[in-house]
Each structure stands twice: as structure tokens, then as C-alpha cells.
């Protein structure tokens, strides 16, 4: 099905031309965020080596540091406070010194002080205290408010001057000195419910949307990026891959086309729309954002093409990727085009998975499901924008076109999944495949990274009680059904090929909690996560499942996983409070928004605090 996806009015055409030269602009930058963690000199990693933690003596926490060290180093050593109470696991306090935190929110700090007292397990309280603010504490590499942007005039070219009226935010993934569209959107997701109560936090997230929109417009096939040149922030060294269309390597850290990266940009926008004050829910929509939406739809349409035409000749490939590597999952076969896919499926290709591993068959079902959900939501946002009266009259026809394309593509993808993405398993019955090619071939497995088959209800694609999903869940949570279900001596759960067959990823355990309706399963899985931090009180990327205590892991600083864990505790607080709250707090239903509103009105709020919205 052909889709119209052109914004044809002259202003946009001229802007697109300017974007080709965008990275050549030189301008005065602004300082980095409020207390960047050191210089990140020791945190720039191209690969993800396994870290084996030796027994380390704990250090006393200092509220103020003379020098901010790399958080990779900081997170690898346990820290204690004199006020810490003894607990069974004696988990440390791992928030960085206050003057080294990259963004400060009194709303978050006040919430932490009240909420953690409600948790009956004091180790769980400590783990939440470390993980919930981790993205704010450590990964806001650069942020300017709208006012600061106006003062700095970071954007000099006349067609781009409007950007000086907008906030911008650059979020790194943790120990890798770059922003992943997917990771950053999901890292920030846990704070979205708080933006109605914290204007500074709201502006931070609005800045993240603005930054992602710019990145998508300029390099829509790419997944990870350098900070903007006018930020004057240190960049990581990279290896230039052979990619077509050719990316702007001055802005791009890595250019793996992943359908979920584009869907994550839409998630960041949608969640802002759902959580912002009513009068501001559409405030993120500007020219950059509309152009980014256009780019997303263009990529979806292009990547819906089959390998061969109806006459049997190869079609032109919208994207190719080749890397000089001896790791098969780091590059694509067939001269960088990927294995063939059939026509007429309604599905969209993805060259890589959310783990950044190459797909085997490019119709990646969790990614397609995710995109379908976000495109449907996008169509409603665009409709609301047109109906709000805020859209310029000359743009409305083009926005209407984007709205229709979004809705049509969403429905087409969903139908394609139902027709081609469900296969009959001899043991588990009808299940969702992880990948298909449209010719009848499929990959039956799951990977812990989101989007995954396990996360389909989380994404909003199906109900947790959906029969095919339940069959799929049984398949992927057993060694007999999922080759990457790791049945370790000390830890069991879903892993993936990115690290290897010895490691369970806590992301998979966390999603298992949020998609379970069984109290015992939830409690057991939560306990497994709690006992596998290697005594460091943070969620790591993956855990060696055949060694005790979580002492052997990858990535001591992986903010996405920390945010997902915190989001899970907030989920349980609203859905199963009896599993985590002390008995004295079970008298009335916990509703996060009501809790935050009460905090705002309480005497604990310091009226002179500039970080609390008046």
C-alpha cells in the first residue's frame, strides 16, 4: 500500500536543505548540565566486556566531592553513610555526591524520602533509592533551558533561529558516551508521571524530545549519537562503518537501523502528552517534531518493501550496513542488505534488534508490534493537535496526511503480525515468532531487551491474558522453548546473544514482573533481582548465571535497567502494594498522582525552593 509522506510546502523544503549542512554550524555553546560526573574519560566503551568484581572495601559517602570521578569507577565501589541501617544484604548507597549529580529535582528527592519509608524490605528500599534517580543523577550529559538557549544563541542560521527558544537535553546511556534513541526514551520514562508536578523536570523531558527530533530529522536510520557540537562536550572515538544512506558521522555515534529506535522517539513524545498539564500536553509539537514524524513514516514506508520485485529482480535497498568485524551479529549478510524478505506481508524490516545485534529475518515481530502501537497513538496526537487550533492553517493538510498515514500503517502492521507473525509450535501451540521473513521461515526465541515478545502487553499490543501471548510467554520462559532462556545454577531468566549464553539480563526479569499476575512469581523474581546486584546496589546489564551473588556482570553503569527497575516498583505500588509495602501503609489505595499531589501540598515543600513549581 502506497502512503503519501511528503511535506511539500516551501518552508520545510528549505529547512531540509539547511539540515544537510547543520553539523557545519559553529556557535557559542553553553555549559554542560548542573554537575556532570567527571569527564567520563574512563567511561567510553565501544564493546561491553564482562566485569568480574573482586571484593572491594566500601568507602564512606561524601555529600560533596572535591573532584567528580567517572561514575563507572564510582558505581564499582560500594558507598555507605553513617546513617545507614544494617540490612540483610547491606546494599550500599550509590547516588553520587550532590555536587556531582547531573540534574537535581526536589520533587524526586522529596518523593524518595517519603516513598522509601513505605517499603517493608529495607534492601529493596535502598535499591530503589539508588536506581530511581540514577538517570537524573548521572546521565544528563548536557541540558539547556529555553532561557539559556536564548542567551547562548546556539543556533545561528536564520531558518533555525526558532530553536533558540526551545530547551535541549542530551542523555547518555551510562558508561557509553553517546545517546541511544531507545535507551534515553526508556531511561526517562520513569519520570514522565512526575512532570505535572515539576516544571524543571518537564522542561528537561521537553528538551529530550527536541533533541531527539533534531537527530531523527538529520539521520533517521541511525540509533546512537554524539552530543551536539555547540554543547562543547567531549565526544567518543568511533569506528566508521560502511552505511547507506551515508550518515553524518560528526553527529552519529553508530548507525544501526532499528525499528524500535524510531518507535521510542514516538514513545517519549506520547508519554509527555499523557502526563503533562492539560494546557501543555501538546507543547512539544514544533517544526522539528513534525519533520521527525515525517521522517519516521518515510522510513517505515521504505522498509516495508520486499527484497525482490514482482518480476523477480532485486529492489533497491533503502539501507545497507557493513562493519569490519569477526562477530557475525555486528554486521549484515548479503553485502549489508540482510537476508531476503517476501512481499505482501504488511510488515516492516528492522536491520538490527534492540540489543544492537543483527536480525536473522528482518521482520522483527516485537519491533513491528511496538511501531504499530506508537503509530496508532501518533495519529491521535496529530488529530488532537489539529483540533486544538494550535496548528498553522497552511500546515493542517499535511498534518492530516501524516495522521492518516500513521493510522493506516499501524493497522497494516498489526494485520501483518496476525497473519505472518504467529506460528504453530508443536509443544506450546500458537505463539508469536521473534522474527519472520514472509517466506515461512521464523525464529522462535526471545531476547531480554525491550521490545521483546515478553513485553508485548507492556507495549500495549496485546492484553496480558491474550491466549497467544500466554502460549508465547510459556515458550520463552523455559529452556525447552527459548534457546536464550538461561537456566543457571544461581539465576534463571532470559538473556540474549549479545553477551553470551551464560548471562541473564535483569531487564528480562523486570519485564517478567510487570507482565505477571502471579504473586509468587512476582515475589520470587523480585527477590532474584534484589540478590543479584553483586553487592553494589545497582541493576547491571547482564549477570553471569552460573556464579553466585551477581558478582560477575557486564556494565556497572547501565541507566536504562535502573530506570526499568524503579518503574517496576512504582507499578507494584499501584497494582500489588501488599507485596512491597509495610502493613501500616496498606490501609488505602496507592495512586502515584494523588501521592505526588499530596506531597506538593504538604508542609514538606519549601516554598522558596526554585525547583518546586509554584
TrEMBL record:
This is LALA0S07e03532g1_1. InterPro entries: 6-hairpin_glycosidase_sf, 6hp_glycosidase-like_sf, GH125. GO terms for molecular function: hydrolase activity, hydrolyzing O-glycosyl compounds. The chain crosses the membrane at residues 7-25. The lineage of its organism: Eukaryota, Fungi, Dikarya, Ascomycota, Saccharomycotina. It comes from Lachancea lanzarotensis. Keywords: Membrane, Transmembrane, Transmembrane helix. GO terms for biological process: carbohydrate metabolic process. It comes from the Eukaryota. Pfam families: Glyco_hydro_125.
Amino acid at each position: 500500500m502506497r502512503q503519501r509522506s511528503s511535506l511539500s510546502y516551501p518552508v520545510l523544503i528549505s529547512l531540509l536543505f539547511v539540515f544537510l549542512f547543520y553539523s557545519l554550524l559553529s556557535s557559542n555553546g553553553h555549559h554542560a548540565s548542573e554537575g556532570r560526573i567527571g569527564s567520563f574519560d574512563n567511561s567510553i566503551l565501544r564493546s561491553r566486556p564482562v566485569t568480574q568484581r573482586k571484593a572491594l572495601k566500601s568507602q564512606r559517602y561524601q555529600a560533596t566531592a572535591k573532584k567528580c570521578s567517572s561514575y563507572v569507577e564510582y558505581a564499582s565501589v560500594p558507598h555507605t553513610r553513617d546513617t545507614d541501617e544494617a540490612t540483610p544484604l547491606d546494599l550500599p548507597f550509590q547516588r553520587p555526591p550532590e555536587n556531582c549529580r547531573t540534574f537535581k529535582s526536589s520533587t524526586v528527592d522529596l518523593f524518595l524520602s517519603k516513598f522509601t519509608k513505605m517499603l517493608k524490605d529495607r534492601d529493596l528500599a535502598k535499591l530503589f533509592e539508588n536506581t530511581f534517580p540514577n538517570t537524573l543523577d548521572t546521565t544528563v550529559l548536557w541540558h539547556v533551558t529555553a532561557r539559556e538557549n536564548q542567551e547562548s544563541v546556539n543556533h545561528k542560521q536564520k531558518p533555525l533561529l526558532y530553536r533558540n527558544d526551545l530547551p535541549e537535553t542530551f542523555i547518555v546511556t551510562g558508561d557509553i558516551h553517546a545517546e541511544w534513541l531507545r535507551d534515553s526514551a526508556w531511561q526517562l520514562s520513569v519520570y514522565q508521571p512526575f512532570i505535572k508536578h515539576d516544571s524543571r523536570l518537564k522542561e528537561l523531558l521537553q528538551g529530550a524530545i527536541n533533541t531527539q527530533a533534531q537527530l531523527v530529522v538529520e539521520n533517521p536510520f541511525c540509533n546512537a549519537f554524539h552530543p551536539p557540537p555547540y554543547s562543547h562536550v567531549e565526544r567518543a572515538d568511533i569506528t566508521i562503518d560502511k552505511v547507506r544512506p551515508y550518515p553524518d558521522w560528526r553527529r552519529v555515534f553508530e548507525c544501526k537501523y532499528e525499528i524500535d529506535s524510531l518507535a521510542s522517539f514516538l514513545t517519549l513524545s506520547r508519554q509527555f502528552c499523557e502526563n503533562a498539564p492539560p494546557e501543555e500536553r501538546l507543547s512539544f509539537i514544533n517544526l522539528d517534531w513534525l519533520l521527525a514524524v515525517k521522517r519516521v513514516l518515510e522510513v517505515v514506508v521504505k522498509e516495508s518493501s520486499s527484497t525482490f520485485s514482482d518480476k523477480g529482480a532485486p529492489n533497491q535497498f533503502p539501507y545497507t550496513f557493513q562493519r569490519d568485524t569477526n562477530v557475525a551479529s555486528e554486521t549484515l549478510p548479503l553485502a549489508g542488505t540482510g537476508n531476503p524478505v517476501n512481499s505482501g506481508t504488511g510488515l516492516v524490516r528492522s536491520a538490527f534488534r534492540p540489543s544492537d545485534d543483527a536480525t536473522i529475518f528482518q521482520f522483527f515481530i516485537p519491533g513491528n508490534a511496538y511501531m504499530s502501537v506508537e503509530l496508532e497513538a501518533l495519529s491521535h496526537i496529530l488529530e488532537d493537535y489539529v483540533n486544538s487550533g494550535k496548528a498553522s492553517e497552511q500546515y493542517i493538510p499535511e498534518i492530516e496526511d501524516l495522521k492518516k498515514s500513521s493510522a493506516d500503517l499501524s493497522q497494516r502492521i498489526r494485520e501483518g503480525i496476525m497473519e505472518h507473525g504467529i506460528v504453530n509450535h508443536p509443544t506450546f501451540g500458537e505463539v508469536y515468532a521473534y522474527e519472520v521473513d514472509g517466506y515461512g521461515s521464523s525464529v522462535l526465541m526471545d531476547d531480554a531487551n525491550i521490545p521483546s515478545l515478553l513485553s508485548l502487553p507492556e507495549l500495549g499490543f496485546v492484553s496480558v491474558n491474550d491466549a497467544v501471548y500466554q502460549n508465547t510467554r510459556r515458550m520463552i520462559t523455559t529452556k525447552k522453548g527459548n534457546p536464550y532462556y538461561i537456566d543457571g545454577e544461581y539465576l534463571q531468566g532470559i538473556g540474549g546473544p549479545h553477551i553470551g549464553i551464560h548471562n541473564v539480563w535483569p531487564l528480562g526479569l523486570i519485564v517478567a514482573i510487570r507482565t505477571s499476575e502471579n504473586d509468587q512469581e512476582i515475589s520470587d523474581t523480585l527477590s532474584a533481582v534484589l540478590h543479584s546486584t553483586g553487592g553494589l546496589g545497582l541493576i547491571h546489564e547482564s549477570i553471569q548465571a552460573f556464579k553466585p551473588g551477581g558478582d560477575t556482570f557486564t556494565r556497572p553503569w547501565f541507566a536504562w535497567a535502573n530506570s526499568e527497575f524503579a518503574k517496576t516498583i512504582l507499578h507494584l505500588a499501584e497494582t500489588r502494594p501488599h507485596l512491597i509495602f509495610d502493613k501500616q501503609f496498606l490501609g488505602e489505595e496507592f495512586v502515584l498522582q494523588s501521592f505526588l499531589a499530596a506531597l506538593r501540598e504538604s508542609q514538606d515543600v519549601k516554598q522558596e525552593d526554585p525547583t518546586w513549581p509554584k
